[in-house]
Amino acid sequence: MNNLSVSEKKQLQLPRNFLRVLIPLILLLGVCILASLAFGSRIVGWADLMDGLFHPEVLTHEANVVRQRIVRTIFCLMCGAALGVSGALMQSVTRNPIADPSILGVNTGASLFVVCGIAFFNISSANEYIWLAIAGAILTSIFVFGIGSMGSGGATPLKLVLAGAATSAILSSLVVAVMIPRSNVMDQFRFWQVGSVGSGNWDSIATFVPFLIIGLLIAVFTGPGLNALALGDEVAKGLGVRTGTIRLVAALGAVLLCGAATALAGPIGFIGLLATHVIRLLIGPDLRYIIPMSALTGAIILTVSDVLGRLLGSPGELEVGIVTAFVGAPILILITMKAKMRAL
């Protein structure tokens, strides 16, 4: 340790307030998991909760309800983590403080491919959804970045958001055009489109796991390079970073995470935006720590939104995509007003 340079020692130091933020977040995550298992159209008591978790021989209705909610909770945590990390990567790659899959049109591109698959190829399984959604997300990302890069100044934050908004509007119109003449497609698609984790099952989780692992590994390994990119391309090149490669690989990780989550849970917005901004505000700009903390925060936000949707919509449920949009839209307006569209 004594042989390390001053800059190397600084790199090994934890960000300010890291442990003060990490410990409460872990505790909050535990509370969210218990709330997700206990609350819904039927509220389960502590004893029944413990029976459902630790006593498989107990076969009461309440214990069975808890066991059914375990799958939903795990699926919710995975989707929230994926969307949180995807938002962190997108903001870093584009150097745009309000970049998010829903804002840049990536979710809508995934939606278009899924609805076309339902309408023209009669797809219905999670495996088919996920590949179509990822393909749509990748092509939409390339298109939005290409449009946003045109003209003087390259891909500025403002141009990327405008390109994403315009692309999202066009693709949404195409989604409607495909659905309207096909009532059966509309019935199947409308439940997916609103964004919900209630359809999650063990097959969905098994399908999601490889994409989640690959996306998280990409995020972790590109974090140091993205930190260098935040200093500017010239500085990053001087530090030996291949800027084009880092951007491409990080963007691929973001699209994998976003596309997989969107395919299985529907286009849930604002999770990446909220999670990353909260963590950046609390611990600073270091992507090596923002990425895992955004995963944790995204899981918390989505789980809380799911619980709120179940409570507010009782005896039915309010889909989580509606809850996140209701909460996220005002926060997006505040962030936009304060950020004034400047780059990260």
TrEMBL record:
The keyword Transmembrane applies. GO terms for biological process: siderophore-iron import into cell. The chain crosses the membrane at residues 21-44, 70-90, 102-123, 129-148, 160-180, 205-229, 250-283, 289-308, 320-339. GO terms for cellular component: plasma membrane. It is a multi-pass membrane protein. It holds the Pfam family FecCD. It is found in: Cell membrane. Its main location: membrane. GO terms for molecular function: transmembrane transporter activity. Keywords: Cell membrane, Membrane, Transmembrane, Transmembrane helix, Transport. InterPro entries: ABC_BtuC-like, ABC_transptr_permease_BtuC. The keyword Membrane applies. Belongs to the binding-protein-dependent transport system permease family. FecCD subfamily. This is Iron ABC transporter. It comes from Ureibacillus sinduriensis BLB-1 = JCM 15800. The lineage of its organism: Bacteria, Bacillati, Bacillota, Bacilli, Bacillales.
